[in-house]
TrEMBL record, chain A:
It comes from the Bacteria. This is Sarcosine oxidase subunit delta. It comes from Tianweitania aestuarii.
From TrEMBL, chain B:
It is found in: Cytoplasm. It comes from Tianweitania aestuarii. Its cofactor is FAD; FMN. InterPro entries: FAD-dep_OxRdtase, FAD/NAD-bd_sf, Rhodanese-like_dom, SoxB. Keywords: Cytoplasm, FAD, Flavoprotein, FMN, Nucleotide-binding, Oxidoreductase. Its EC number is 1.5.3.24. Belongs to the SoxB family. Transmembrane segments: none annotated. Residues 42-85 form the Rhodanese domain. This is Sarcosine oxidase subunit beta. It is an enzyme of class 1 (oxidoreductase). It catalyses: sarcosine + (6S)-5,6,7,8-tetrahydrofolate + O2 = (6R)-5,10-methylene-5,6,7,8-tetrahydrofolate + glycine + H2O2; sarcosine + O2 + H2O = formaldehyde + glycine + H2O2.
Length: 86, 422
């Protein structure tokens, strides 16, 4: 059982968290001008790093969305930072 | 003294003879050659998909200057870690065309490869737990029949006839209403599939190079012309990627991304017990499935871990979920001692269908995205990928699975269609 640290609640059981996708993806705009290629890249193409990764997670119980830096091989979490501004 | 004659073919007679003379006459099943400087085709990854591709390149296309490059040992990836269930109970015609072709090839594979893959067509029953689920089950059965494969809608009584130890009590959290039966489905010996293809490919001249990691691609004028490996550069006319959970790492090396995330998928086996389960059972409600191996172990699997991972070990919460599913399904298995737990890194695609086709880099081809269910597809995957590497063109069966479907939106969404997780 692994503990993840929610920026709001502190260390909690991994089962309370859901993976929300890779960090740093920006939705292309304006929609009518986005090519099928770029839209498909935004929707489906993902980095899948073996090692250090930066991801969006959500703590289901409190609703906090945050950025988690962790390693996909060792599962060591280095940092978790809230996505909200303050 | 004359050296004993070595056996090239396996048969009951050769087994008997070798049994009588201390098994001194078996030949090495495949060579361990050093890589040549160049090949017509290279396949990265010595799992079932890669080895089958090499075999069919030689057999169907007469190509023998072919190498399979494996960073560890053949079958040491998902092929040797999977729960070996073979079935074609999918929803879309494109999927049934692929998986049922594979099942048909499996039916004659042992003979074709002269290798006992222990394919046992003991049937798979997917159990439904409500009237609503029975309607979904009927829909899948209808789709399968229309797609030309065998399927039957089972009643509660029929399910319990196949698996009498299932939890039939009033207290069941997931009561048995009936289910989907595919009688031609079954299980095989996973290692034997890798070894059988390896031996047969080697016999046709394919070089199987183990302990050799691909570390980069040789790209000239935008085209892939070979690979860099821990044993040096190897050039090739066509390079195929069949590295399952490591496909993302390959794509990264070649400078593109894929619609794939890697996750751990775990499985477990119990201590061996007397025969008590002679079919494969999956519960829609628990997501847990199991069968009994020829050795008597209960083999148990379920869903993927919830955290993207290359760790190849599996997290405890999912293990607990899978095991609690098993106890709900077979209360008497509470007495079982679990013997081993392990995991493989599976390549999960949003529509739960494989990606087969050219990559964004010319000369480089993809066979990946099999996720939790590519063992059953090894023979067909090998045939269509060999066709692609040999001709540069899609086989009819692989065309719908091109990477381009994520641009056109023509997904083959089996996650929604058949609710299939593996
Ligand atoms: C626990 C579990 C249960 C499963 N159950 C089933 C099931 O019941 N039925 C079913 O159909 N499927 C099942 N699967 C899925 C199935 O195992 C896979 O889809 C299938 O084995 C994929 O075959 P492959 O040859 O593509 O991959 P693999 O067998 O994983 O082979 C890929 C190979 O590539 C090698 N490789 C990786 N990187 C490099 C590199 N840089 N250089 C050289 N080589 C490299 C790896 O070492 C590996 O040997 C299961 C998987 C798991 C993990
Ligand atoms: Zn929280």
């Amino acid at each position: 059982m692994q503990l993840f640290s929610c920026p709001f609640c502190g260390p909690r059981d991994e089962t309370e968290f859901t993976f929300g996708g890779e960090a740093g993806k920006i939705r292309p705009e304006p929609a009518p001008e986005v090519s099928a290629e770029d839209w498909s890249k935004y929707l489906h193409r993902v980095g899948n790093p073996r090692g250090a990764t930066s991801e969006i997670w959500v703590h289901q119980t409190c609703g906090e969305y945050f950025l988690m830096e962790r390693d996909t091989v060792s599962h060591v979490v280095s940092t978790t930072n809230a996505l909200r501004k303050s | 003294m004359q050296p004993p004659r070595l056996h090239k073919r396996y048969s009951a007679l050769s087994l008997l003879r070798e049994g009588l003379r201390g098994h001194s006459g078996w030949q090495q099943a495949w060579r361990s050659p050093e890589p040549k400087p160049a090949y017509d085709a290279i396949i990265i990854g010595g799992g079932g998909q890669g080895l089958a591709t090499a075999y069919y390149l030689a057999k169907n296309h007469g190509m023998t200057k072919v190498a399979v490059i494996e960073k560890g040992w053949i079958g040491g990836g998902n092929t040797g870690r999977n729960t070996a269930t073979i079935r074609s109970n999918y929803f879309y015609p494109e999927s049934v065309a692929l998986y049922d072709y594979s099942l048909k090839l499996y039916e004659t594979l042992g003979r074709e490869l002269n290798y006992n893959i222990m394919f046992s067509q003991r049937g798979v029953v997917t159990v439904a737990h409500s009237d609503a689920e029975m309607e979904i089950a009927a829909r899948i059965v209808n789709a399968m029949q229309i797609n030309g494969t065998d399927a039957e809608l089972f009643s509660r009584t029929q399910v319990l006839e196949k698996a009498p130890l299932l939890n039939s009590g009033d207290e069941a959290r997931y009561p048995i209403f009936g289910g989907v039966w595919q009688g031609r489905a079954g299980v095989a010996r996973h290692d034997a599939v890798a070894w059988g293809y390896a031996r047969a490919a080697d016999a046709r001249g394919v070089d199987i190079i183990q302990d050799c990691a691909v570390t980069g691609f040789l790209i000239e004028k935008g085209r892939c012309v070979g690979v860099e490996t821990s044993k040096g550069e190897i050039r090739a006319e066509a390079v195929g990627i069949a590295t399952a959970g490591n496909s993302g790492v390959m794509a990264d090396m070649a400078g593109f991304t894929l619609p794939i995330k890697s996750y751990s998928l775990q499985a477990m086996v119990s201590e061996p017990v007397k025969p008590c389960l002679d079919t494969v059972v999956l519960y829609l409600g628990t997501g847990t499935y199991m069968f009994q191996s020829d050795k008597g172990e209960i083999v148990v699997g379920g869903g993927i871990d919830r955290i993207p991972s290359y760790a190849q070990r599996g997290n405890p919460p999912v293990q607990a979920t899978v095991l609690s599913g098993m106890l709900e399904m077979f209360p008497s298995f509470a007495q079982l001692k679990m013997l081993r737990q392990w995991a493989g890194v599976v390549d999960v695609v949003p529509d739960s269908s494989p990606i087969i086709g050219p990559s964004p880099v010319p000369g480089l081809y993809l066979n990946c995205g099999w996720g939790t269910g590519g063992f059953k597809a090894i023979p067909a995957g090998g045939v269509v990928f060999a066709h692609l590497l040999a001709t540069g063109e899609h086989h009819d069966i692989s065309r719908p699975f091109d990477l381009d479907r994520f641009r056109t939106g023509r997904l083959v969404d089996e996650a929604a269609g058949s609710g299939i997780a593996h």
